Structure formats: structure tokens, C-alpha cells
Amino acid sequence: MNIRICVYCASSAQAPVHFGEAAYELGRLFAANGVTVVFGGGGVGSMGRLADGVLAEAGEIIGIMPRFMKELEWAHPGLASIRLTDNLAERKALLLADTDAVVALPGGCGTFEELLEVLTLKRLGIYWKPIIIVNQAGFYDPLLALLQRSVEERFMDERHLAMFSVVRDIGEVMEAIRSSAPWGPEARQFAALR
Q1: What is the residue range of 122's domain?
Q2: Beta partners for residue 42, in sequence order
Q3: pTM of the model as a whole
Q4: Which strands form 4-8's sheet, in the order they lie side by side?
Q5: Which pLDDT does position 193 carry in this prediction?
Q6: What Rg value do the Cα atoms of the chain yield, rounded?
Q7: Given 29, 134, 170, 190, which residue has the most CB atoms within 10 angstroms?
Q8: How confident is the model at residue 71 (pLDDT cuts 50, 70, 90)?
Q9: Are strands 61-66 and 131-134 parallel, antiparallel or unpaired?
Q10: Neighbouring residues of 8: CB distance < 8 A, sequence distance ≥ 6
Q11: How far apart are CA 42 and CA 63, in angstroms?
């Protein structure tokens, strides 16, 4: 399998260890399956552990980060490939470019913002590849409840809940990508509720 997957994850070194361990295992899993990983380029927290996992299996990983973050020495030191951008908006666009799927691990406001943006792009029929939310230890339960409420209150269509798949364990990610519901530009027909 020769696919390219974008992973959204955190740069906090203070989060519980099990989140970093899961990121490491995801990196190893992707490398073992020949997946090229595209991520934010960071060297600490789940980002760093993801990269460590890919590199431990001699896999391919590409970091993308704004220049100011590289200047702050936030980049993972083991990356052979890192692309620098002028700002966060450019970074987010490059993270998604030519990817075959997006996987969101638990994280903070940056991870939330990236995840909600890609969901919005999918709702508008701009990005139609699989989006997998790793709901490790129920981390995303509040967000999933909020999305459900958005449907119940008619801010979103019931069909929008098919924009993403939810898994609880890293071992379920590859199958979730393979079995994701098809999505395309026709989603624009029900993007706005009229």
C-alpha cells in the first residue's frame, strides 16, 4: 500500500504518557504498511512520538511547520524531510495536499482547529478523503456529542455524521480508512440546510 496520510496530533510533553505511546504505535503501524506520514513536524509530545514510531520502522515521514517554529527549535531532529511555511494557514493547506486520509489523535486547540477545518472542507465537498478520529480513552466524546447536537438542532444534516469515522484504538485505524463511506463534490448539494 503506497498512500499518504496526514496526522493531526499534539505537541504537549505534559499530556498523559498513554497518548504518546499510542502515537508511537500509530507511526510504527503506518511505516509497516508503507504509508507516508505527513504531520506538523514537531519533536515533542504526540508529534515527536509519532515521528519516532515511523523512524523506528524506517518509514517515510514529512514534517510541515512555519519557519518561526523551526527557529524556536520545535522541529523533530530526525526528520529527513521538512517543509517550512510562512504561516499556519499555509501549513494546514500543505498538510492536506495530496493526502489519502486524515487521522486526528487527541490534542489541544491546534488539533481541534485542524480537525474542524478538514470537516468543514469535507462538508463543502472540497476535501473528500477519509477522516478518522481516534477517540482514545473517550477523549473526543464531548466533541462527538456536540456534532450530534448540531444535527439534532438542524445546524448540520444527519448525513454529515458520515464525514468521519471514529475508532477507539490505533489498531483500528487502517481498517477504518479502507471502509470509510464514499464522499465527493455532490456533498455540496446538502452542505447548507435550506
Answers
A1: 4-190
A2: 75
A3: 0.95
A4: 81-85, 61-66, 36-39, 4-8, 101-104, 131-134, 165-167
A5: 84
A6: 16
A7: 134
A8: confident
A9: unpaired
A10: 39, 40, 95, 102, 103, 104, 105, 107, 111, 114, 115
A11: 7
Residue 35 is given by DSSP the state P
For 159-169, the pLDDT digits (tens) are 999 999 999 99
pLDDT in tens, 138-153: 999 999 999 999 999 9
Give the count of domains, the chain: 1
In whole angstroms, give the CA distance from residue 115 to residue 192. 20
Q: What is the CATH number of the domain that holds 34?
A: 3.40.50.450
Q: Are 36 and 17 in contact (CB under 8 A)?
A: no
What is the average pLDDT across 31-46?
Answer: 96
Cell numbers given for 1 = 500500500
Write out the three cell numbers for 109.
486547540
